Amino acid sequence: MGKTIRQLSEEFKLSKQAINQRINSINDFRNKHTYKVKNHLEIDNQGVKILANFDKQKRQERQPNQQDKNDKNDKIDHILLKQLDVKDQQIANLQQALDQQQKLQIATVTENHRLKEHIRKLSGLLEPSSATQQQQSNDKDDTLSNSINAIHDNAENDKQDQSHIVDEKKKRIHKNKVNKSWWHFW
């Protein structure tokens, strides 16, 4: 004799929907273990045992799945640990490269200071020679002024040319003044 879904729900202390879900989750359960009596669906004794052991079966099925999940998690953990080790090594290499760069920068700055000091010393040695250059420049200026005086004397002899030049300069000045008027820009 079988039991109805209502009887099983009271016996297992589950809802009718939970019993129906168990029945539907087992393959061919309805075909093999259920039969219809009047308007009720009854489940045979073997079906009742299967439904009673449903939780145990699910646990047993879950246990290998859980073991597989644990194995997968262990593999993932191992992979992540390897990746962390690689990243730690990369960070250490970058830190070492940064330290080397800073040392090189300090060495470059030190070398620049040393070279600046050397240039200052050399410019101190060059200053007396610059006084010699200034003396040579003064000698050239004297020679030029003598040449200018000779030219000036020749220019005095030629008064007409000079007055002509003065007139031309006055015209240029006048022309420049006219061009710089504010209304010229309109």
Tell me about this structure.
The chain is rod-shaped and about 145 Å long. The protein has six helices and three strands; from the N terminus they run βαααββααα. With 186 residues, the chain is mostly helical.
Task: Map the helices and strands.
Blueprint: E1 3-4, H1 5-12, H2 16-25, H3 29-33, E2 34-37, E3 40-43, H4 45-52, H5 54-157, H6 159-179
Antiparallel strand pairs: 1-3, 2-3
- Beta content: 5-15%
- Order of the strands making up the biggest sheet: 1-3-2
Q: What's the β-strand tally? A: 3
H/E series: EHHHEEHHH
The dominant shape is: rod-shaped
What would you call the structural class? mainly alpha
Count of helix runs? 6
What kind of sheet is the major sheet? 3 strands, antiparallel
Span of the ends, CA to CA: 121 Å
- Give the mean pLDDT: 76
Rounded Rg: 56 Å
Low-confidence stretches: none
Helicity level: over 70%
In a few lines, what is going on in this structure?
Helix content is 84%, strand content 5%. It is mainly alpha-helical and 186 residues long. Strands 1-3-2 form a three-stranded antiparallel sheet.
Which labels suit this protein?
mainly alpha, three-stranded antiparallel beta sheet, 186 residues, rod-shaped
